[in-house]
Amino acid sequence: MNRIRNFCIIAHIDHGKSTLADRLLELTSTLSERDMENQVLDDMDLEREKGITIKSHAIQMNYNGYRLNLIDTPGHVDFSYEVSRSIAACEGALLVVDATQGVQAQTISNLYMAIDHGLEIIPVLNKIDMESAQIEVVTDEICDLLGCTPDEVFKVSARTGEGVAPILDAIVEKIPAPAGDPDAPLQALIFDSVFNQFRGVIAYFKVFNGSVSKGDKVKFVATGMEYEVEEVGSLKMKLIPGTDVGCGDVGYIITGIKSAVEVKVGDTITHTVRSCTNAIAGFEEVKPMVFAGMYPVQADKFEELRSVLEKFQLNDASFVYEPESSLALGSGFRCGFLGLLHLEIVQERLFREFDMDVITTVPNVSYKVYTMQGEVLDVHNPSGLPAPTLINHIEEPYIRAQIISKTEFFGPIMKLCLDRRGTLVSQHYITAERVELNYDMPLSEIVFDFYDKLKTISKGYASFDYHITQYRPAKLVKLDILLNGEPADALSTLIHEDNAYTFGRKMCEKLKDLIPRQQFDIPIQAAIGAKIIARETVKQVRKDVTAKCYGGDVTRKRKLLEKQKEGKKRMRQIGTVQVPQSAFMAVLKLDS
Question: In the 8-state DSSP scheme, what is residue 490?
């Protein structure tokens, strides 16, 4: 155990975590030169295309007789749950800061998470080879944040490999060996899992006490299910089978579980005989921030979608879902996400990895509805809202937003936050050039395009992090969209009263462009209760029925036009409007 080190790499998005991991793998000869490529741990096509880490990746390295278990983590605020799981399985962390951008909001957030878990922090200043690097300034920022001296900050260039080698010695010297009793009953924490269609569920775990060997009888504490261990081993670029995984080490376990529901991330593994007395306190329960409906494109694919979501949840524990039905779209699932990028990534991965095409409804957040009878309802979906006469008041979730930016963008950022009903809590100048703003804002105001707008007005410099603080009373109304007089429940939203008219008008204009023309006029209306607040019309496609009339009395033409009008009227009464998928997502891009 004294020769094991478990550590993760944490940083803000795009500060060079995956590139630093590449250099560490090269220095420890974990991969041959032939297998080496840029961002080797980002093994998803989607990660390479977008240039972001989506999943945490665990890999084992050998260095001077020490076994180093590294976990590379995501940096985007939407994937902070992956970071919390990685931190729970480690004793130390490399905190990477970009020398050109300095300390960012997510850097601070991830650092506090690591400190709360008692991890040993090794500060690393990356990208020192860049022309715009401010080495002294950013080193001082790191020292203020951690209370360390400038000599303790490792100055490296992960791209060129300059200064990376001493980090390996620091990992061995500074990060403590895992604590635990090899002779105690087995206690192992599952921190990730994947589904393999041939082997079943493969769980990744860290052993806190005891050890587990091939052929052992084990029990999963949360589910109470018992299994025989078919295979255990270590995590290199591929799974390497072994005879056992000892105390303090990280590995994988295959027990032939075919049902995805039987494995929960954060569960404890122990032996069936000589079990541990209590489970390991895992990481905090995931709290979805954004909810959206997911429906199969073909109604008969509902059961297939259910099994796909079950398998997908194994790979992404922050994703939650429950069945629901919609008048317009049939049977589907109400899904919870950590943010809008998370929603986009889930939709893309379902299509790529499982060939599952889904229709996604308008995302919204969870509200607390207090009824006249004194009940409190959690409403994730506008269609679940009680009648207005039964509602006493509605409360919406508020967040504490932390924005770090250059001082020149101070004014536009304040305007953006005020437009989104934000209240300034505090402002703090980190340096003469950089300012930290803290705002209280409704979560519903940042769900759609806040992050994109923030990046645009700050020319990409501002960083953003947030956490839920409380629920506050709000004047909310249910905005319905009526197509041909019928409410399209998948497009309805809960919105603040002051913004309802503007939002409704924009929605009608956007839908007018997206809904294809039919044989009859389609009125698109935005309504609050029985009151119509905006309307647009998709004009009908008309055949020129008078083309065959040449000369003669005008009444001949009029008779044909009246006949056509009657037919259109009857068609409109029985006609249905097909809403394309782009219309459901249009709400997110109303300003574009």
Answer: G
CA distances from 128 to 13, 97, 149, 161, 227 (A): 17, 10, 18, 11, 51
Location of structure tokens 């951690």: 146
- Chain segment 94-103, per-residue pLDDT in tens: 888 888 888 8
Q: What is the pTM assigned to this prediction?
A: 0.70
d(C-alpha 409, C-alpha 459), whole Å: 9
- 253-261 mean pLDDT: 78
Cβ-Cβ contacts under 8 Å for 215 (sequence gap 6 or more) = 228, 229
Environment class of residue 146 by beta-carbon count within 10 Å: exposed (0-12), middle (13-18) or buried (19+)?
middle
Compute the average pLDDT of residues 159-172.
86
The upper half-sphere exposure of residue 325, i.e. CA atoms within 13 Å in the direction of its Cβ, equals 5
* 315 neighbors 195 (Cβ within 8 angstroms): yes
CA end-to-end span of the chain: 56
- In sign, the C-alpha dihedral spanning 10, 18, 174, 122 is negative
Alpha helices in 380-484 (DSSP H): 410-419, 443-446, 450-457
| Residue 399 φ/ψ, nearest 5 degrees | -120, 160
pLDDT in tens, 19-57: 888 888 888 877 666 565 555 555 556 655 656 666 666
| DSSP string of 4-27, one letter each residue | EEEEEEEESTTSSHHHHHHHHHHH
Say how far apart CA 554 and CA 563 lie, in whole Å. 15
- Model confidence at 481, pLDDT cuts 50, 70, 90, reads confident
Q: Using one digit for the tens of pLDDT, what is the confidence trace for 181-230? A: 888 888 888 877 777 778 888 888 888 888 888 888 888 887 788 888 88
Q: Are 413 and 402 in contact (CB under 8 A)?
A: no
Provide the 10 A C-beta neighbour count for residue 24: 24
Distance CA 204, CA 233 (A): 10
Domains of the chain and any CATH numbers:
4-174 (3.40.50.300), 187-271 (2.40.30.10), 290-350 (3.30.70.870), 368-474 (3.30.70.240), 479-589 (3.30.70.2570)
Q: Are 317 and 265 in contact (CB under 8 A)?
A: yes
pLDDT at 526: 92
Q: Residue 440: pLDDT band by 50, 70, 90 thresholds?
A: very high
DSSP annotation of 315 reads H
491-540: pLDDT as tens digits: 788 888 888 888 889 888 888 888 888 777 888 899 988 889 999 988 87
Q: Report the relative pairing of strands 92-98 and 120-126 from DSSP bridges.
A: parallel
- Mean pLDDT over the full length of the chain: 80
Three-class SS string for 232-296?
EEEECCCEEEECEECCCCEEEEECCCCCHHHCCCCCEEEECCCCCCCCCCCCCCCCCCEEEEEEE
